[in-house]
Write the structure tokens for this entry.
Amino acid sequence: MQKNERVVQNITLLAIETSCDDTSASVIKNGEILSNVVSSQSVHIKYGGVVPELASRAHQKNIIPVVNHALQISKTQLKNIDAIAYTIGPGLLGSLLVGSSFAKGLAISLNKPLISVNHLEAHVLAPLIENRNLQFPYLCLLVSGGHTQIILVNSITDFEIIGKTIDDAAGEAFDKTAKIIGLPYPGGPLIDKYSQNGNHDAFKFAIGKVPGLDLSFSGFKTSVLYFIQKQSKKDATFVQNNLSDICSSIRKTIITYLMTKLSLAVKQTGINRVSIAGGVAANSLLRNEIIKKTETENWQVFIPKLEFCTDNAAMVAFAAYAKMKIEKFSPLDEAPFASFK
């Protein structure tokens, strides 16, 4: 037993993330992230969203340079890698296939074990990368372009979804409303940017009234669309003249809704250890609002760095490292999946 413990304390692992449109690779050694390289794809901007075929082609082009860069930054040679990790899903199937195929080929050539990682579980564990004192169980608000969930995290391998969107994700709501007001993709970060100088009480938008911990954003997007159409008929320059106030009102509506549901989850479970994860966790208002809860409601809050919020291989590396310590490896014939399971 002591021999096994010495083995797991000396682990160097290479992780690959290709679930959507970011090609990423990371090297982790004994729980410490040595490198985290992300290559984003600008080709999707003109289409107003990610084009799956273009994404998979870009991954094929980027994956070798990204992996090499991650190894160089970490000063690690392939021969010193103990295992290969990759994102198995959910995500765009073509993108996932590029990453999984590369990881499997590399593992075979190096005769190293494979570790597949669920993309959402990697997000949920991301706060642990820098907050090792975060104790189980804790609540995680996972908010991204494709998913919005409130998750009860009981352990490294035990997750329970206690609340979720019944239609669209919060990140999608940000991007789609940004498109309505003429902002380029991805619009979520731009709404956050323009909100800084806006009045969040300038305009009121309807948002889904769903019982319990579930959420709904489809009606919110419709509310924004009808409002903008109505105002633009009266004044063609309405959006241009009120951009900051519109963005601030959109942001406040979404974040207030998320915080209301998260507060309800804390009340229902009695767990005050709370984290946020996913791309929307980079939103400045969400980060500020959850920090306020440490003073007003005595929450223990754990927020990952911005670089660990958006899609990245470091979170995959950390989750895989935790799996490797309990010898939870993956077979070569395990297939990637597009939707959550």
About this structure: The chain has a mean pLDDT of 93.
